[in-house]
Design goal:
Blueprint: H1 2-74, E1 76-80, E2 86-90, E3 110-113, E4 193-195, E5 219-221, E6 224-226, E7 232-233, H2 245-253, H3 284-292, H4 294-297, H5 314-317, H6 324-334, H7 363-371, E8 391-392
Parallel strand pairs: 7-8
Antiparallel strand pairs: 1-2, 3-6, 4-5
Length: 401
């Protein structure tokens, strides 16, 4: 009898253990499911918010571009064509270029920025929708703002200090936002534009300056508009000295490529331009081309030598058919990729020379390379900002430019 009870107890104990094991297993599965669900929800929320941000940014871009298009329409005479298109002819010469607003004399390629006291009246350019809240000096409740240096990470404005690689532009902002002496005519960061359901509705004008939380405002943006048409591509512009006088005139005279842009024409003195040679006898453009097109042009001596054993000295002395200027000329005529990458035939170690061609991957690389003592120190004695020559990144498809 007692034996049967013992067996029964053992069976019940085994069943209890099995049930507990299943409970533990199910608990583990439940916890894993909840953990995964929580993670998936966070990812979904992040994707949702990112989509909202992208949509807001695209809407802001459409609004800005729409204003520029409206300026063209307002300042032109529309002529319908037989094929259904419309040609807009500017009524005055002034209407051939965008009207400027919020620009600075220190940034000649700055066309417009979002500004609260906009001088534009809609004739022809529409006025800015900006509020009285600045993107740099007026931080949000959670402390967020756009720093002065961030507004110039593209180096499209001149630098306040050409002795380092920070992008701070000259600005009238005080020391709390600007580490350099205030420049009254310098760059003032843009003001915020608050996005409401209908920013063109005058009854919603009050929502452009928030004094209290407003559920009808879905976001904000600030912007600057630059003209890049006059910029030079530093990966292409500039050609070497040609020791043969006849071709030294003929080849650059073609002007069929930006590669034959005369860099010595930029600036008014050796302090603000690439001279070839400069007052100390250094061939700045030759040093640039010698470093950038190293494998193509085969410069002599070591970088950054100067004096009797100057780097790329053979540019000024070699008059043979395989001279650097001739190699460069062939390289320019034979280019088929729009100079968006280094020379394909020399963008690797050569079996006999171990030489490369190089490219600047982004605009700020020019300034950074100069100041960090790398191969680009050929213009260290000129303008350390690199921006005064109005340079443009060659790879505009990448997100680093």
């Amino acid at each position: 009898m007692n034996g049967n009870k013992a067996v029964s107890y053992r069976k019940k104990g085994a069943a209890l253990i099995i049930v507990l094991a299943f409970v533990v297993l199910l608990t583990g599965v439940g916890v894993a499911y909840l953990s995964r669900t929580t993670s998936d929800r966070q990812v979904a929320h992040s994707s949702f918010y990112q989509a909202n941000v992208d949509q807001l940014a695209q809407s802001a871009m459409d609004t800005i571009i729409g204003d520029l298009r409206q300026e063209i329409i307002n300042g032109s005479t529309a002529v319908s064509q037989a094929d259904g298109t419309t040609v807009y002819t500017p009524r005055t010469a002034a209407n051939m270029v965008p009207q400027r607003s919020g620009n600075t004399v220190l940034g000649p390629n700055l066309i417009r920025r979002s500004i609260r006291s906009d001088s534009l009246s809609g004739n022809p350019a529409p006025s800015s929708r900006a509020s009285g809240v600045n993107s740099t000096t007026d931080a949000s409740l959670n402390g967020r703002s756009v720093s002065l240096q961030r507004w110039n990470t593209h180096y499209l404005l001149p630098k306040a200090n050409t002795g380092n690689d920070d992008p701070y532009p000259p600005s009238p902002l005080p020391t709390a936002f600007n580490p350099y002496p205030a420049v009254p005519t310098g760059f003032t960061p843009p003001d915020w534009v608050f996005v409401a359901p209908n920013p063109n509705d005058l009854t919603q004008e009050s929502r452009k300056i928030l004094t209290a939380p407003d559920p009808n405002v879905v976001g904000r943006y600030a912007y600057t508009v630059y003209a890049e048409g006059s910029l030079l591509d530093m990966n292409v512009a500039g050609y070497p000295t040609d020791a043969v006088s006849s071709t030294a005139t003929i080849w650059p005279g073609r002007k069929g490529s930006v590669a034959y842009a005369d860099l010595t024409a930029l600036g008014s003195s050796d302090a603000t331009r690439l001279s070839n040679p400069d007052a100390t006898g250094i061939y700045q453009v030759d040093r640039l081309v010698g470093w950038r097109n190293y494998a193509t042009t085969q410069p002599s001596n070591n970088f950054p030598n100067t004096g009797g054993q100057a780097f790329a000295k053979n540019f000024q002395t070699d008059a043979t058919s395989t001279r650097p200027a001739a190699l460069f000329y062939s390289y320019v005529l034979g280019n088929t990729n729009g100079f968006l990458s280094a020379n394909a035939t020399t963008d690797r170690v050569s079996q006999d020379s171990g030489k490369y061609d190089f490219i600047f991957h982004k605009r700020s690389s020019v300034s950074q390379h100069i100041l960090k003592g790398s191969q680009c120190t050929f213009i260290l004695s000129l303008d350390a900002s690199g921006q005064q020559y109005r340079l443009r990144c060659a790879c505009e498809q990448c997100d680093c430019c």
